[in-house]
């Protein structure tokens, strides 16, 4: 498997074999880190990390992974560079491509990260756009594989806003890996019809399936993974809260949902999550709309079925694998 020089912009660009290679490489690098085996294969190389939206996991994962691989890194925070304001994406890409061996980008439209990749001449890694969150997918697939021993045939139900980066990405990931994906939400929050069609065509070849279902019990009975994300994503207007809470409250992950799924089921969330009112935004919205939790109850979040922190740790190992593979590492 040779992924050297490739950018990692969305899973649609990768074959199931390539995706599985990245998942397994992440597992190997995790084992090396746990066993204290040095893997600083890229000493002397440097990466740039552009964040036009905030982050905890993705930024820390790129930084720690870069250090473990022996690389230096530069963090460009929201509003701290000329990007998009005084300098075009194409010009920025050509400048950073002269200085760095790889570039991470988190921001708005997918077209921006695609343009960076087109002009930079070095691998570009998508750290989240409005449309896709592909590095999260390698971590999620690794986490699911660790739990169930395989990906093929695993049933994943995604509840909430299925039209945005997480819903889209999980639908693509499941289709590619022969898994059964169900978007469990109200019709207006179903993923884009063209993407659903693309994923159904992929699933027809891999043995997976893509289902859209409004009824919670039907969508969650027997599911292996119950997955959710925030109802209002970064960059969306404040006014969205009221409409989302009204529309998506029936799709909150509760103990009843986990009971429908069964004892074997796990709860996953890309994080950050509104499972209590211990955050500034959660408190404000909770008090305004009379809630103590939003997309998931605290009971489920803190339960033994919840594997959200294994999932968060795996962000680092999988981002390391993505960088290493695209920078030219081939581990036997
Ligand atoms: N899951 C995720 O991308 O988290 P951050 O926003 O903290 O990077
Ligand atoms: N849908 C969320 C994912 C955060 C990791 C957002 O875009 O804010």
How big is the Rg?
19 Å
The fourth-level CATH homologous superfamily of the largest domain is: Aspartate/ornithine carbamoyltransferase
What is the correct CATH architecture of the largest domain? 3-Layer(aba) Sandwich
CATH-defined topology of the largest domain: Rossmann fold
Segments where pLDDT lies below 50 for 5+ residues? none
Overall pLDDT metric: 96
Separation of the first and last Cα atoms? 10 Å
Bound molecules: phosphoric acid mono(formamide)ester, norvaline
Largest sheet: 5 strands, parallel
Task: Describe the 3D structure.
The protein is α/β, with parallel strands linked by helices. The protein has two domains: 11-133 and 313-326, Rossmann fold (3-Layer(aba) Sandwich); 155-223 and 225-263 and 266-304, Rossmann fold (3-Layer(aba) Sandwich). Helices cover 45% and strands 13% of the residues. It is built from 13 helices and nine strands. It has helices at residues 16-34, 57-68, 89-99, 110-120, 134-148, 165-176, 193-206, 216-220, 240-248, 255-261, 280-289, 298-301, 308-326, and strands at residues 46-51, 72-76, 102-106, 124-126, 155-159, 180-184, 209-213, 225-228, 266-269. The strands form two sheets. It has a five-stranded parallel β-sheet with strand order 7-6-5-8-9, sandwiched between helices. α4 (110-120) links the parallel β3 and β4 (124-126). The longest helix has 19 residues, at 16-34. The structure holds phosphoric acid mono(formamide)ester and norvaline. Norvaline (NVA) binds at residues 128, 164-166, 229-230, 233-234, 270.
